[in-house]
């Protein structure tokens, strides 16, 4: 029994986006509690909850209102479930699956009325109000505070107001939102601006702060004549329809490589800074810090990897764009949460040059090589055995080891998303079978110490890693061995 428990992978379920309403109320409590008890019946370990900046600090700077979330957390605790809390510093609305609209705090949007460059901006000057541009991370222009200070104050207030849930071990993970949809990326493919799959997306660095930063970087490098890309196309273009991404295009020139390095480095620095504040805010708590990375699987088989590049992941056949992120996370003892675990290559249209299975292998391999934990989730709601089997394979790529811990095992999996469609009817039976297989056919284990989750107080970040050290991880080392079939099928 003890050996088999080392194969146990916890399963969480995402709560509905609007479980706390935009006006900060925990409504439909009876229905939510019914759903939570159904999750408990399925032996799910816990739930993931978006904690919206736009709700909590809506009334004004440092005017936090946690009452609705405290009621929600108490209901979750009463059901015997754990909590993964997302510090959601982004807008809800405008992306795949967004069923409600929760904007950034109104006082932030009002500042943006006078200075629209606080938002990410594409080449044509279109602003994106999903998330503040990383170009102002250290600019004290929001009521005298920088965005990094604002995020830090929010997390400190969360710790103070949720200390009883933290101390009791109810809250086990803090996922820090680092961009649109809570992901460490640029908002390169916004549906609310007309993007459709499998468009390559657009670079989002044309606000005045990032323009000035790039001009300084280019000048310091001895090339003041270099400019931000003007030939990278629009949201729904194909790579071969642009000068930048076509075969032997701008992206392989000296100026193109310089831009892509700068663009991806800015994202690394952004994530590193905010995770640094998270480790300070939650130092001493028995939680893990996590960051989410998007599974941009379309155009993965194109030489340019265009969709990944516009999102800030400088990933090519001869350059690993994800291991630097893993290495950065290792400084904060962090967990990398990756999406699209349920997808198979053959499910994707051929014209998209998509390869989600290869992408997942690459990202998970990089995490394990950097000795960090990796968690994951499905990108789209799925209720079928094929999706569950693929998630099982990714959770334990080499299968179950009945004589001890498996060679490779994910830290946890979060299922998207809790709904009546999941828990009513035949879908629920299949989901319960999936959870049991994720638990290695073991009974529910309420104590995480017993299945290999190292629950120790969070420590301060390790000494700084230079960008040069981070980028040493860009050379691909080949994927770790993944079995093509799993003996854990639903």
Could you explain the architecture of this structure?
It comes from Spinacia oleracea (Spinach). InterPro entries: GH (IPR017853), Glyco_hydro_14 (IPR001554), Glyco_hydro_14_CS (IPR018238), Glyco_hydro_14B_pln (IPR001371). One of its GO terms (molecular function) is beta-amylase activity. This protein is α/β, with parallel strands linked by helices and 490 residues long. The chain has a single domain (2-474), classed as Alpha-Beta Barrel (TIM Barrel). The protein has 16 helices and ten strands. It has an eight-stranded parallel β-barrel with strand order 1-2-3-6-7-8-9-10, surrounded by four helices. Strand 8 (335-338), helix 12 and strand 9 (373-377) form a beta-alpha-beta unit. The model has no long low-confidence stretch (mean pLDDT 93).
């Amino acid at each position: 029994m003890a050996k088999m428990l080392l194969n146990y992978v916890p399963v969480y379920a995402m709560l509905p986006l609007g479980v706390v309403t935009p006006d900060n109320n925990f409504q439909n409590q009876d229905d939510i509690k019914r759903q939570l008890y159904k999750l408990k019946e399925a032996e799910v370990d816990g739930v993931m909850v978006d904690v919206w900046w736009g709700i909590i600090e809506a009334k004004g700077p440092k005017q936090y209102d946690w009452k609705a979330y405290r009621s929600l957390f108490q209901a979750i605790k009463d059901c015997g479930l754990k909590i993964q809390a997302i510090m959601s510093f982004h807008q809800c609305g405008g992306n795949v699956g967004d069923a409600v609209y929760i904007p950034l705090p109104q006082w932030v949007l009002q500042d943006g009325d006078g200075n629209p460059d606080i938002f990410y901006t594409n080449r044509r000057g279109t602003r994106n109000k999903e998330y503040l541009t990383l170009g102002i991370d250290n600019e004290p222009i929001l009521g005298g505070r920088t965005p990094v200070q604002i995020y830090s104050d929010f997390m400190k207030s969360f710790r103070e107001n949720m200390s009883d849930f933290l101390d009791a071990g109810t809250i086990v993970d803090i996922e820090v939102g680092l961009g649109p949809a809570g992901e460490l990326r640029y908002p390169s493919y916004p549906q609310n601006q007309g993007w459709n799959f499998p468009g390559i997306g657009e670079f989002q660095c044309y606000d005045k702060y990032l323009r000035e930063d790039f001009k300084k970087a280019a000048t310091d490098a001895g090339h003041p004549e270099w400019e931000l890309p003007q030939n990278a196309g629009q949201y729904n273009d194909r790579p071969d329809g642009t000068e930048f991404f076509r075969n032997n295009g701008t992206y392989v020139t000296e100026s193109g490589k310089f831009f892509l390095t700068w663009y991806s480095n800015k994202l690394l620095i952004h994530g590193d800074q905010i995770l640094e504040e998270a480790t300070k805010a939650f130092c001493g708590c028995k939680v893990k810090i996590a960051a989410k990375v998007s599974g941009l699987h379309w155009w993965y088989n194109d030489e340019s990897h265009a969709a990944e590049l516009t999102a800030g992941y400088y990933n090519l056949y001869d350059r690993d764009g994800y291991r630097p992120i893993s290495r950065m996370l290792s400084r904060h003892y962090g967990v990398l949460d990756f999406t699209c675990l349920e997808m198979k290559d053959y499910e994707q249209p051929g014209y998209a040059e998509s390869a989600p299975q290869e992408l997942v292998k690459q990202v998970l391999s990089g995490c394990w090589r950097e000795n960090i934990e990796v968690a994951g989730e499905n990108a789209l709601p799925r209720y079928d055995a094929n999706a569950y089997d693929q998630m099982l394979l990714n959770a334990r790529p080499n299968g179950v080891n009945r004589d001890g811990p498996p060679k490779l095992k994910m830290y946890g999996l979060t299922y998207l998303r809790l709904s009546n469609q999941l828990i009513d009817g035949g879908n629920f039976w299949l989901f319960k079978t999936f959870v049991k297989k994720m638990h290695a056919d073991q009974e529910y284990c309420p104590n995480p110490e017993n299945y290999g989750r190292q629950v120790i107080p969070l420590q301060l970040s390790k000494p700084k890693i230079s960008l040069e050290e981070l980028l040493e991880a860009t050379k691909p080392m080949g994927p770790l061995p993944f079995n093509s079939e799993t003996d854990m099928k639903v």
